[in-house]
Amino acid sequence: RRYRYPFINCTHCGPRFTIIRAMPYDRPFTVMAAFPLCPACDKEYRDPLDRRFHAQPVACPECGPHLEWVSHGEHAEQEAALQAAIAQLKMGKIVAIKGIGGFHLACDARNSNAVATLRARKHRPAKPLAVMLPVADGLPDAARQLLTTPAAPIVLVDKKYVPELCDDIAPDLNEVGVMLPANPLQHLLLQELQCPLVMTSGNLSGKPPAISNEQALADLQGIADGFLIHNRDIVQRMDDSVVRESGEMLRRSRGYVPDALALPPGFKNVPPVLCLGADLKNTFCLVRGEQAVLSQHLGDLSDDGIQMQWREALRLMQNIYDFTPQYVVHDAHPGYVSSQWAREMNLPTQTVLHHHAHAAACLAEHQWPLDGGDVIALTLDGIGMGENGALWGGECLRVNYRECEHLGGLPAVALAGGDLAAKQPWRNLLAQCLRFVPEWQNYPETASVQQQNWSVLARAIERGINAPLASSCGRFFDAVAAALGCAPATLSYEGEAACALEALAASCHGVTHPVTMPRVDNQLDLATFWQQWLNWQAPVNQRAWAFHDA
């Protein structure tokens, strides 16, 4: 009955978290309430000996969800809809596909014209695209093991293992994110196509991925040539999870959430605490006793759509775990949306320094006991609120779970133009040069700065106009990338400069170099670094490696 049915499932597979409206996990409290069981499915559902006994999403072509194809006035259903999508993908077209936790935009990952069209329509000129492979043949064992787990995450692998992909999938990078089919519809597509597909998030630039048919048809009509949709609603948006080949988690979402994480020894008597997270790449966390429950990756809280999803995800998580917080913890930045929400919850609140939270999360990840004593933590990121309103991003801290002492780190350098410094690497190179390199205009590495109207910006830095000081490791990386010429004048995605710099360094297998980064008065001596690094003439990949090594 269910041969080639795109919504086949049993008690061991199929969607759960993305279709639940409330607990308990029974069909009337899921989106499947809209699909009354036919007699055959009802018999299976009620039979204790059947594999579909109490499988809440159970359905068949007779009574369950169905596929639909929509494209410029064309319309097809079920198998015909699937075949229409396959035909379009074979022709090099872009298809929006509704999955378990949201929409993907798909095209043939071997077809450079299709990929270029997708990038142009989505205004995504350089950000790497995830790829779905029919099989994991030829990939490293560690990657295959991760790809074939029930979570089925995106795994980063070296490009050499997937030579059939066109060059524009992950430009200027050494790695590409690959995944295998993770639901029946994807299996049907890849079985027939037998080629790698780009599977990138189905959203407008800067907006959350679509989850409803109406939203997708409205938002993606200028990107997709056709839509492969279905009538099973998505309650919770869920991005694909991303892990490194080593197993290191980069984005924890589909396949892992809402499983609880075990906290280290010592947390047994911790009362229920709601931790709101920071505003960028937000996740929240429910802590009670020896368990922590992280939400899925939600995104940036500046977006109204993400804020709505955040509130719905929190409501569902609290419902699933019967969780009523006694305390609320939030970032020390008073202007964060999450900090404002904390103040509105009428509960006792606790602020935590951004980088203390980073360090404490690392301790918990590695099962460091609550009373395990102090550790030295290096917290390296873009920017976060530090002590006394200082902007941190490259710090050496002495920490335990309760306390944080600042020991040193990178010197504070102007963020030239404020938020623009995170988007235009040459601004950070200018700020570094004005601070540490008196004769900077004599170096060819500063060409990216000298091509700009830098003198006006230099005066603004000197006068402290829209140029707050920050000890940001991310902006330091941007400056070095600008000096090596591996970063565009304006970044097209967050971290683009650092990713390109890392890829350059990874192409060099180590080299003897004169570059150092000594410590002076508990700060790294960047004047010495820049003098040595700028005066050392070597290939760009060796200089990138020397920077990382120093």
UniProtKB/TrEMBL annotation:
GO biological process assignments: protein maturation
Domain YrdC-like per the UniProt entry, residue ranges: 79-255
Molecular function GO labels: carboxyl- or carbamoyltransferase activity; double-stranded RNA binding; ligase activity; zinc ion binding
Family: Belongs to the carbamoyltransferase HypF family.
Lineage: Bacteria, Pseudomonadati, Pseudomonadota, Gammaproteobacteria, Enterobacterales
Keywords linked to the UniProt accession: Ligase, Metal-binding, Transferase, Zinc, Zinc-finger
Coiled-coil region: none
Keyword flag Transferase: yes
Pfam family, one: HypF_C_2
Source species, domain of life: Bacteria
Organism: Escherichia coli
GN (gene name): hypF
Transmembrane intervals: none
UniProt catalytic activity: C-terminal L-cysteinyl-[HypE protein] + carbamoyl phosphate + ATP + H2O = C-terminal S-carboxamide-L-cysteinyl-[HypE protein] + AMP + phosphate + diphosphate + H(+)
Pathway: Protein modification; [NiFe] hydrogenase maturation
Protein name, UniProt field: Carbamoyltransferase HypF
